[in-house]
Each structure stands twice: as structure tokens, then as C-alpha cells.
Amino acid sequence: MHDEAGQEQEGKLKSETLSQGDKDNSTPSYSLWDCVYRLFSADRKRVETALEACSLPSSRNDSIPQEDFTPEVYRVFLNNLCPRPEIDNIFSEFGAKSKPYLTVDQMMDFINLKQRDPRLNEILYPPLKQEQVQVLIEKYEPNNSLARKGQISVDGFMRYLSGEENGVVPPEKLDLNEDMSQPLSHYFINSSHNTYLTAGQLAGNSSVEMYRQVLLSGCRCVELDCWKGRTAEEEPVITHGFTMTTEISFKEVIEAIAECAFKTSPFPILLSFENHVDSPKQQAKMAEYCRLIFGDALLMEPLEKYPLESGVPLPSPLDLMYKILVKNKKKSHKSSEGSGKKKLSEQTSNTYSDSSSVFEPSSPGAGEADTESDDDDDEDDCKKSSMDEGTAGSEAMATEEMSNLVNYIQPVKFESFEISKNLAMQINMGMYEYNGKSGYRLKPEFMRRPDKHFDPFTEGIVDGIVANTLSVKVVLPSLACLRIAVYEEGGKFIGHRILPVQAIRPGYHYICLRNERNQPLMLPALFVYIEVKDYVPDTYADVIEALSNPIRYVNLMEQRAKQLAALTLEDEEEVKKEADPGETQSEAPSEARTTPAENGMNHTTSLTPKPPSQALHNQPAPGSVKAPAKTEDLIQSVLTEVEAQTIEELKQQKSFVKLQKKHYKEMKDLVKRHHKKTTDLIKEHTTKYNEIQNDYLRRRAALEKTAKKDSKKKSEPSSPDHGSSTIEQDLAALDAEMTQKSTDLKDKQQQQLLNLRQEQYYSEKYQKREHIKLLIQKLTDVAEECQNNQLKKLKEICEKEKKELKKKMDKKRQEKITEAKSKDKSQMEEEKTEMIRSYIQEVVQYIKRLEEAQSKRQEKLVEKHKEIRQQILDEKPKVN
């Protein structure tokens, strides 16, 4: 184990091994095998070799005295059992090639060049000096004689890499290191939904223990789904309504919260009530339990420094330490008062989602008038949100007692998202592991400013925030996490680690892996090399390179200038052989030689001197016509770049958008129909229950009336006594019959509701599957249609390009004819004839090259079309 958590687990593993020692104060070798062989069951020889390297008995029948099995011996045993040959390579790379140690200077270079963050300011965070490195060597080098000489061996080097100074995440990031004096709404808060459930929300069991475990794990916001208790004591309960989940006592939950509220974190707890208790008496009980059990920890009145007034911010977690706040709907007649209270957050999301981003419909109707009225839309949205959010839409009216508990925060409708299991949950646990497990993470400064709006779907740099890069661009590094997961060859999960991108240290580090619950594993660890750099856009890469190493940059520019000058001299020598020597031409080379030297600092090609040979080539010599030096430039100047339409552009086509809107409305109608069925079923069962209840009350009243008459007869001496016992039996039978009917009706209702929910689930699943098929087909058809149109348009572009090329060639020919008119008539006629002949040859060659370029362009476009069509099929979501 090779960071703080790793060292702790290493000690635990050793303690586990030693705890199996026998009464003779020895650890049987087979105990060590049992402890370690589980991890290396396929390589028994490896364990034996490691024991022999430590001079320990390797036979399973031998014993190991505990005084011989010291922490140092145990470390050697682990190093032999799990060797790291790459550390030897690193050790040799930094100077220990012929010697078994690194000197102080070599160790200093390793720390400053590899382990130090290059983004740090060298004045505020200076590199380590020899004296500081010597202290580290003395700390980690086990050989005192080497340490005194300022030398560190491989063993000491390995100890340093696994030491506390070398963790992949700085220790201060694990402690409370963020500003906790900001308003409450400036933090991400570790929250729990359906806290009471141990399994699914349809038939899972509820448990009070879940509240203890959640709070001990660092959660600061828990949910309480409160329902009316139906026992004789009329005690409110917590459960998931209209399901088969079990019930737990509200009072026991409050006691559990009070017991574990501040054991992990002293910062405030938010109790999110989903109140379905329609009994004022039971709501009063709930409020009374909160006041009595929480006592002074329950914050019912605003703090003096933070009154509920406009413009006054919310109190900070620091101001609310060891306080409990209640979030519940306020009584309706106090809505105006409650509206003045601050809200923690308001978030909305599109409830219609699919498993593929390609087929996720954009809000149908955005920017267009909808056919339905606004009232109908609001009603539909309400019903749909009620379906999506479980029972939150049917909360009971809060009584005066419960309303008085609400302070600073109030519920805001949050349209749920579905990506919350497994990996998403693990990442959430990893995020709140830092900042002292306080349950509060300060939002980035950009998200705390009221004058800015954060778009989580942006792909560009956010408001000047520099994006760190891994293998993908990280837009907001202060919110991003890096997850490193390790699997066996067969796909079995070994462990993972979630690290905040902004806190990762560069250099060589060990990373202790965790399990799915974010608990450290015993031995699994990764040895990694991390390199970080300042983010530089590609546009400024050359400038940054020149600024970071100006001497090298100047040398490269001078070398380039000399090479250009040498090429220029070669061209001039060829020209001298072909052309008559003249005074003007003899002076040109000297100018060409001096110009690059004068402009040696310029790395652009625009200032490169033009060779005189090119000037001569511009004047056609009789009998020989050479192709222009910039043939490809002329062709490129007329070629038009044609890009294939992307999937996003295809999705904006009118026919595809229209189909999306149609599917959205169909899904909306389907949900509406099932909601109506559910409502009708509940009404039907309510009516039946009322009928059974009324019949029961009527029959019971009749029996009680008969009992009264019999009691009067009893007072008469001549009347018999056996009549009263018969009536009591009838009443008992009636109660049993009522209980049986109620139970049967409840079971029937739950089964019918379950069937209805299943029917809705499979209906929506089938509908989505059919929608996806239609969307795939439509997107494929749209792609083929648009691509065919693009190819037709490309043919027209090709003809225009040929005409444009001929125009440019004809213009050059006219310029040459104009230049030839200044010469003798006989010479002009000869040159004119030669120009016409060469012009025809050039046009043929240029058109041929243009057609080749056009053909390549079309092939690339067709290939791109195929890739896009394949992408449409590849991104099809798998619907089981």
C-alpha cells in the first residue's frame, strides 16, 4: 500500500496475519498463506520465494516467531511478493546506472523535475534545495551510513515514493480546506433520496438504520416520506406511498437522526420532508417530536445576522454548525411570507430522455407556438411530474405546527434524473470524500456569481477558465473527477479510485484502489506517472515555444535562413548557365544572400526572398514552356471545400424535427392515459373500501343496539344470561370479517397497481423502441436525401471551378500577349504563336489536375457520407 490509506491497509493486513498466531507467541506459516495466498492463489511458488528472501521458513508446517516478523520484515516480504521492476528503471534513469544509490543532487533533480508541479510559481513555491533533500534522505534511507553521505538506495527510494509527502492527492485536500463562510446556496450538498429504503422503491424494505449509515457516511440532506399511521396510537410512519415497501416509525427515525447527526460532520443537516400526513393531530405529533428530540439543534427562527429580508444572503454552513433545518411546504395562508425566504436552488431538466444522444429529442415546440393551450400544458406537466417524481405531487397541506419548523429553506420542484445508480453513485461518493467529508463542496467562483449563467453542455472554455486536459477536454476542472478502474482479464472488477482533477499531483505516485463503497482495499494499488502542463491553445503554441526557449528558437530560425539561402544559390547557378549574364542578374544573388540573414528572426514564409529564377520563369523563353511553380496553388484557389453534413445538422432537418415532435406528443399522451387509469383505479378502490366500511358500521351498530336491549333484559331476574355471549361472538366475527375484507381489498389494490405500473413500463418501453426504430429510419432517409443533393450540387460546383480556372488562365495569357506587344512585330508573332500553343498545353494539364483533385474530393465526401450513415446505426441504443 503506497499512500496514506494504503499504509493503513498494509498495517491492517499485517495485524490480521499476526492475530492468527497461536498461544506459543508464533505465527504459523500456513496462517500467512491463508492471508496472502487468497490474492495469489495461482502462484504458490511466488509466496514461497518471498518468504525465503526474508529468511523466513517457507514450509507450511513451520512457525514464524512474532518477534522475527517485524514491520521491516513484512515490508521486505511485500516488496518481494509484489515487485516493481519499473522503479529500478526510474532509479537507473536518474543516475544510478553503475552505482546502487542516488546522490543528493540526483535526488534533487528527480524531485524538482518529476515530482514538482510545473504550474507552481517558483518564487512562492521554490524548488527544493540540497538541505531539504538531505532531510528527506535521512528520513527514508534505512542505511544510516548512506544517509550521512547524502546517498539514497533503491529501498529508500521506494520508501520515499510510498511516503506521506508523495501522495497523488495533497493531504490538505482531504482535510477541511474550502471556505465555509459563503452563503448556503453556494455549495453542493451531499444529499440522499428515499433515504429509508434498503432496496427498490416498489417492494423494498425500509429501515431506521439507513439514516444512521447515511449520516455517518457524510450525507447532510436526508429525505423523510411521512404518511399517516393507521394504528390505534396514530403514530406517523415513513414509507414510500402506493407501493409494497414496509413502514418504519417516524419517531424512531428522528431519534436516529439526532443520534448520528454530527458525528461525521459538524455542518448543518437539512431534513427534506415529503409530507403526506393529512391528519392535523399526527402532524402536530411530528412537530412535537422534532422539537423535543432535536432540542436546541433545531433552528426554527432566523439568525439575527441573517433576517428573512430581500437582499440579505443565506447564512453560511459555518454559521449553522450543529444546526438542523427543516424543509417542508408552508401553510397556504403564509405563502406571501414564505415567498420571501431564500431558495437553495432551482433546477430543471428535460424529463423525456433516451439512451442515445442522437435520438434525444430537442424540446419540441421551442420557438414555435404550441397547438394546445397553456393551461392544458401546465396540467399535463403537473401530471407527468407527478408520475415521474413518485408521490411528491400529492403532498398534504402543512399545519401550523409543521409550518413553524420551516426556516430559510423551502421545497422547490426538481424534475428527477435517472442516472443515479452504480458509477454515478460512486463518483458522488468520491466527490464528497474531500473537504474533510463535511458534506459540503464549494461551487466554483464562476457558478457563485449572480451575473453569470453556467451552461453544463458547453464544449468551449468557460468564461476564460483554462481547461486542463486528460484524454478529453475538461471544461471546468474544479468540478471534474478522474476515475481509474482496474479489471481482470475476464472483466471482473478489482477496484477503482476517484480523484479530483484539480488536486492531482504530477510525478510518480502510488494510487491505492477502493471498492464500490469507496473503502480502501488491502493490497491492490497502481504505480503511475502523471504529467501536467499549462493549457495553451494551438493558435499560440509557436509563440509559447519561442518564449519558453528563446535561444533555441533563434538558432532554429538562423539555421532555416541559411538553408533557404543555400537553395537560392543553387537556383541562381542554374539560371546563370541558361541565361545571358547581366549586371542586374549578377547583383540579385548578393541581395538574396543578405535578405535572409537580415530577416533571420522571422519564421514566416512571406518574407522569404523570391529567387531570380522565378522571375525569369515568368517570362516565357521561345521554344520551351515550363509549368508555373505554383500550379497546385492555382488549382487550390479555385477548389471549393465541401464538408459533409454532420449528424447534428441532419437532425435539424424539418422532417426529422417534425417526427420528434410527433413522438414526444405520443409519449406524453401515453403517460396521461396511464395516469388517468391509476387515478380511476384508486377512486374505485376508495369507493369499495367506503362501502365495506359503511356496511361494517351499519351491522355493528345493529349488533350493539341488540346488545343494549339484551343488557336491559338481563336486569330482569327471569331473563337468561347466554344472549350476551352470543352477541360478543357476533361482534368478534364481524371485526374479523372486516379485517379480512380490508386486507383482501388492499392486496388486490396493490396487485392491480403493480400490474398497472408494469403495463405502463412495458408500454413506454415498447413505444420508445418503436420511436427509436422510426427515428433511425427517418435519419437514414434524411441523410441519403441530403447526401444525394450534395453530390448533385458538387457536379455543378465542378463545372463552375473549371470555368473559373479557364478564366484565370486566359487572364494570364492576355497579360503575356500585352507584354509581347512591346517587341518587334516578327518576334511578337513568333512569341504569340508559341504562347497560344503553350496556353493550350497548360489548360489541358491544369484541367486534368483539377479533375483529379475534384475526383479525390468526391471520394473523400462519399467516404464521409458512409461514415455518417454508419454512425447513425452504431449509435442506436440497445433496448432490451
From TrEMBL:
A GO CC term attached to the entry: cytoplasm
GO molecular function: calcium ion binding; calmodulin binding; phosphatidylinositol-4,5-bisphosphate phospholipase C activity
Keywords carried by this UniProt record: Calcium, Hydrolase, Lipid degradation, Lipid metabolism, Metal-binding, Phosphoprotein, Transducer
Record InterPro entries: C2_domain_sf, EF-hand-dom_pair, PI-PLC_fam, PLC-beta, PLC-beta_C, PLC-beta_C_sf, PLC-like_Pdiesterase_TIM-brl, PLCB1-4-like_EFh
Biased composition range(s): Acidic residues: 369-380
Keyword Metal-binding attributed: yes
Compositionally skewed regions (Polar residues) per UniProt: 583-608
Name of protein: Phosphoinositide phospholipase C
A Gene Ontology BP annotation from the UniProt entry: phosphatidylinositol metabolic process
EC number(s) reported in the record: 3.1.4.11
Catalytic activity, reaction form: a 1,2-diacyl-sn-glycero-3-phospho-(1D-myo-inositol-4,5-bisphosphate) + H2O = 1D-myo-inositol 1,4,5-trisphosphate + a 1,2-diacyl-sn-glycerol + H(+)
Cofactor(s) required, per the database record: Ca(2+)
Binding residues for Ca(2+): 194, 223, 225, 274
Record field: compositional bias (Basic and acidic residues): 1-25, 334-345, 705-716, 812-832
Cofactor descriptive note: Binds 1 Ca(2+) ion per subunit.
Region feature Disordered, mapped onto this chain: 1-27, 332-396, 571-628, 705-729, 805-832
Enzyme class, broadest EC rank: hydrolase
Biased composition (Low complexity): 353-363
CDD domains: C2_PLC_like, PI-PLCc_beta
Catalytic residues (positions): 193, 240
Lipid metabolism is among the record's keywords: yes
Chain ranges of the PI-PLC Y-box domain: 420-448
